[in-house]
Amino acid sequence: MGKIVNSWNEWDPIKRIVVGRPEGTQVFAPEPGAYSHQPEGGFPVGTWGKFPQEMVDAANEQMDAFVKMLEKRGIIVDRVEVHPYLAEVQSFGTPDWTQLNFRGTNCPRDLFLPVGNEIMEASGVLRSRWYEHLCLRPLFERYFKEDPDFLWTAAPKPRLTDGSYVKNFWYQFFASGMPEEEQRKHLENWDFQLTEKEPMWDAAAAARCGKDIIWSAGAATNRAGLDWLKRYFSAKGIRIHEGRWSATKPPYITGHIDVTLLPLRPGLAVHNPTRPMSEELTKLFKMNDWEVIEAAEPTHHYDHKIDLWGKPEGGPSWISMNTLSLGPNTVCVEAHELKYIDQLTKLGFEVVEVPYQKAEPFGGSLHCTTLDVYREGKCEDYFPKQIPGF
Q: How far is CA 46 from CA 28, 38, 75, 98, 265, in A?
């Protein structure tokens, strides 16, 4: 038996990784935690279902090529196993609610948080993802048997009753003509669809930096969830920092952090220039001599028939920031994002260009669709200077 799980940050050299699968991904049925199903996408309100098979095949081709590239670099790759029941358009539920189909499991980053020798299953904020953990259970069972130091934990599962959500929030936000200034205030005040009835959080709201984790205060975590995380990880000597944002252009929303802020190596992070950081977070980086640069604007024009929300997708997207660091000087970037590739190359990175635009409509790009299980290195303190109370 040997060590399998060890992952403290976003940049140490990767030795083992999990990659998702697009099979079974579906436009999810209506639920109170998300707004979806625009008629122009071919999935009018009240309808849902599987992605077209040609889109699944195209995504698989690119993801399989990505896996082969990783393996050629000596990285062990484990693949998600889609639960056969969830792969079909079938309902499931709890005593509190019924959900009519499963969203999919192409993005293991979203609901699983590696911190050192521990992988924690997140509480999750969407009903359509309630059973997504079943698709990684076979891997975690094997890790537990083979790695005597692996800590396999799970946050308390929220009940996700109607009381956990602000009624009709997303309809009011997107479809009712809410003025942009009011939308911006929702972002700045961290005021979205989740109530404070119970702790709720997605793992992809985290940017890990050794002893410090920057946590996105947005639609994928509520204050109770952040409070639970602070209590849990403070006992382990890990500091959780609230990442707050404003916005210069719509959409006035943040959720998962990897299209807003991403540390690339010690002392360097990139951020989305349309989502300025709070004064406190800016100060934390500055006082510890980190350089935080604005990411180059996305250039690739996406042209998808549908995405997870059942709508067509076109134009540039800040999913360009959704990159995967193989080491402190090597970054995988979507091959069509030429401006960002040029920027990172000039910063001294070896850029691995990965064609991945066909995988993106299934939930995310290179960071979202992976989970770094083992990175060389140990827990380091990259922010020795702290702001009291932050």
A: 10, 10, 43, 15, 45
